[in-house]
Design brief:
Elements (H helix, E strand, L loop, with lengths): L2 H6 L9 E2 L11 E3 L6 E7 L4 H9 L1 H9 L4 E7 L4 H11 L3 H14 L8 H11 L10 H5 L2 H10 L10 E4 L2 E3 L5 H16 L1
Parallel strand pairs: 3-4
Antiparallel strand pairs: 1-6, 2-4, 3-5, 5-6
Length: 199
């Protein structure tokens, strides 16, 4: 692990395209990696029904973990965009999970979901939840789902006028960026800061 990168990332900065002016979902529904004490908080707004989001988690996120979250320099939160029923169901499961269980839940789903398998998302989530020992009762029908705390949290979130509506979207320390959240994006921000320090 490159200790200099871990140190430099504390100063991650760039010109933002938008400043947050909406309420996020409660941390119950967020999947977090890294230390809450980190000076850089990164939030990725994603959907369980978004193949691009799943691909990023599957192919790129392990490198971000290794370089940034594991050394405590970044707290990375995956924040659901609950505009579809699959993501709302995932939120219901996540209410019943510990943070390590949520991490495993997300990574396992991402391993299997792509453009071809997206139709199996509901069945896959149920199976993973069962493997994790999570109670999956009470969300078989739309009527049951509408009675859940997660459904009401999702409704309150999406009715906000300025909440994030495109996924994946990245936010760093309260500012939202258009760039796709991958290692190229993270490294660019890191290099920009290093250049400023060297001048």
């Amino acid at each position: 692990m490159d200790k200099m990168k871990c140190a430099y990332v504390f100063f991650l900065s760039a010109t933002s395209t938008q400043v947050l002016s909406f309420e996020k979902l409660d941390e119950t529904y967020q999947i977090q990696f890294g230390s809450p004490e980190a000076k850089v908080h990164v939030t990725e707004y994603f959907s369980f029904s978004c193949p691009k989001c799943m691909k990023f988690i599957r192919e790129s996120f392990s490198e971000i973990e290794e370089r940034y979250t594991n050394c405590g320099s970044i707290l990375w939160s995956f924040h659901p965009d609950p505009a579809d029923i699959i993501t709302v169901k995932a939120m219901i499961y996540m209410e019943r999970m510990t943070q390590p269980q949520k991490q495993l839940f997300l990574k396992t789903i991402a391993e299997f979901l792509n453009n071809r398998t997206m139709g199996q998302a509901d069945k896959l989530m149920k199976n993973i939840a069962i493997e994790l020992g999570i109670d999956i009762q009470g969300i078989d029908s739309l009527l049951e789902i509408k009675e859940t705390k997660a459904f009401h949290a999702a409704y309150d979130y999406v009715k906000q006028e300025e909440c994030v509506s495109e996924v994946p979207t990245i936010e760093i320390n309260g500012s939202i960026y258009n760039e796709y959240p991958n290692m190229t994006f993270i490294e660019k921000k890191l290099q920009d800061h290093v250049k400023k320090v060297e001048v």
